[in-house]
Amino acid sequence: MTAPETTPIIVVENLTAQYGENVIFQDVSFQVMKGEILVILGGSGCGKSTLLKHMFGLYKPAAGRVLINGIDVATRDEDALKTIRKNSGVLFQSAALFGSMSLAENVALPLEEYTDLDREDIDRIVRMKLSMVNLNGFENHLPSELSGGMKKRAGLARAMALDPTVLFFDEPSAGLDPITSAELDILMKQINTGLGTTMVVVTHELDSLFSIAHRIVMLDKEAKGIIAVGDPRDLKESSTDPRVRNFFNRTPTGKDPKGA
């Protein structure tokens, strides 16, 4: 993986998320550095996916803000929103491919919406993006004709269509077998290393996060916020918080891995 820079590309400031009267998390603040793979993790119901969706502007915060390259993602300015969307891509848990469209048509959608490229250039870029995720030759296949891992890679090709500076991943390994999951981790690291793409990843898969993460942000349901930030390898061994140690060592609640 490429070494991240010390310049933040994403700034989360005092972010609060809630549904009605139910506060999911509050006053969450952290930064994502340029070229970094940052993993968001925590137990069920802590708000991992909710935080991710606030970060790319799908949800509007109850308080606080998220800046990508200095632009507030909750802005109502159409030009600013267009800039954000062109510079960031999203791979949803289900890959979110349109079932009635071929892979080529799916990958072409962002190019058709956000560029003035002619058909020949769009087709060339589509072939290049599918080749990057090892799906060359599958341009005319429908999503229903692909395995789960191939769908995830096709979704990644679409997310990369506009050469974004930031990629967001929501549980990329969900539903994949261990080997396919490891192959996706390798692909993500290759993209990070080769293109310097910043990545924000939600996952609960320990093998995956230890493989890909430069740093992690750990949320806790009861704390309604962040309980740890740092290198997961360091946190596993040296965190003084039993909740963090229990998570990384897969220890049931109430049993400290360093205790008797």
Overview of the molecule:
This protein starts with 7 loop residues before the first strand and ends in a 12-residue tail after the last helix. The protein has about 260 residues and is of the alpha/beta class. Helix 6 packs parallel to helix 7. The chain is built from nine helices and ten strands. The radius of gyration is 19 Å and the shape is globular. The strands form two sheets. A six-stranded mixed sheet has the order 6-7-8-3-9-10, with helices on both faces. The chain has a four-stranded antiparallel sheet with strand order 2-1-4-5, with helices on one face.
Q: At the first level of CATH, what is the class of the domain at 1-87 and 166-172 and 198-251? A: Alpha Beta
**In one word, what is the shape?**
globular
**Biggest beta sheet summary:** 6 strands, mixed
**Cα-to-Cα separation, first versus last residue:** 37 Å
Mean pLDDT: 90
**Name of the CATH homologous superfamily of the domain at 1-87 and 166-172 and 198-251:** P-loop containing nucleotide triphosphate hydrolases
- What structural class is derived from the secondary structure elements? alpha/beta
**Count of β-strands:** 10
| Fold-level CATH name of the domain at 1-87 and 166-172 and 198-251 | Rossmann fold
Give the helix proportion (percent range).
25-40%
Tally of helical segments: 9
